[in-house]
């Protein structure tokens, strides 16, 4: 509750009224606050003050009765009680807006003449002077229940009237204080704000300004008051301002840009936010405005516009130069691609012959020469034949590697030039991938590495893809794994992925540091020192893989840690088999 009983009632005035009421009607009464602290007490009965409250035993009985009354009052109920000392106590709560602010007590009276026998016994029991005690009982007020009810109703109405009046007065005082505080706050706000402020009447005369407005215009307050905003506005903006001021009675709020003139003659660009002032009847009394200095903003905007104009010219010029440079680079790149393709084609025929004759020579060495020397005991001959066989195997492996590099170069050139488009068709996944792995058997065997292939049982056996390009991606990944792995092996796995496939090539090589992983798919990028540990190759294998997988609409990625090997994976999305030849 935001009020207390003391806030709402003039206690001294109420005390006098209660004393007059007691003098006229002999009603013993008191008022307590919400915590049962005594505020007013009138007409205490001497049987209580001189006897019951002075004796420890009877005083305890009085306090017990008080407690019973208090407990009922906490529940917001009227209560009347005959205490153990034989007197009646009655009370009702003083309720405001549903909450108890205090209580009105009537006490130390009887509903009928006193029972002399009981009071004599009580005097003897507690050691009271019998004559004095019995004389005090004669002075106990007697109120019938009907009369008591009327008295309490009268006091209830009386107290309610006083509290209502007090609450109205208190609310009015608080409202007045709040209004004064609001006015002070408003005045402080107006004076401390950085925006300029003026207030005008219906004839557009300036009635009030703040310090900020004086600083903006460069005039003292006395040279502004009584004049019109028109007098401080730039000549070219006066007609516009007059139109805005005429809208004061029709438009409640308006915001507009305005150019004014300081006392020094300098221009002042402001953003004006104007509001119409109304009285309590809704009648227009004038208006006020807050003006923000945007002079620097306008100046910066003009400078920025000039810079943008110059920048646009510069961008146009540079764009033209870049376009010309790009065209030159495109021509050179086309020439480079054609030259690379031409050289690759020229090398392909002799390289194919080299691979073929080497393979043929190795087979004849294994099938004819070696068996024909079984009966020869010449160790030098056996050693020479073994060395030649190893050399032929090495030549075959290196020639195959060179052929792969050549094919990669040709395919990369065709991809860059746009001449290589995937030829989609139904493809048996296991057949293509096993063939790609078989190409690297000789290189893996020469290094003592194992090659393993795993295909999940629920992986699709057939998908729509370019079988040659799919095999090329897998072949490059396996070649890369074999090249960088010195012991252990390489594993090729195929798993389903949303009706498509996910292919993973993992090795037991040295692994790749995290800072190098983002660059491995870049064209011509190779890991290692270029002079001491540069691996064989051109650095286009992985970039070619990425180009092809991107053309498939898939994704390729790497997972690796130094010392724990590498794992390259790519996804080929699902495409419907229907509509392709053979389906």
Structure description:
The chain is of the alpha+beta class and 583 residues long. The protein is built from 16 helices and 17 strands. It folds into four domains: 169 residues, Beta-Lactamase; 99 residues, Beta-Lactamase, CATH 3.30.450; 75 residues; 151 residues, Heat Shock Protein 90. A five-stranded antiparallel sheet has the order 2-1-5-4-3, sandwiched between helices. A hairpin with a 2-residue loop joins strand 14 and strand 15. Helix 10 packs antiparallel against helix 11 and helix 14 packs antiparallel against helix 16.
Kindly summarize this structure in a few lines:
The chain is an alpha+beta fold. The protein is built from 16 helices and 17 strands. The radius of gyration is 54 Å and the shape is elongated.
Task: Describe the structure using short key phrases.
583 residues, alpha+beta, Beta-Lactamase, 4 domains, 5-stranded antiparallel sheet, 51% helix
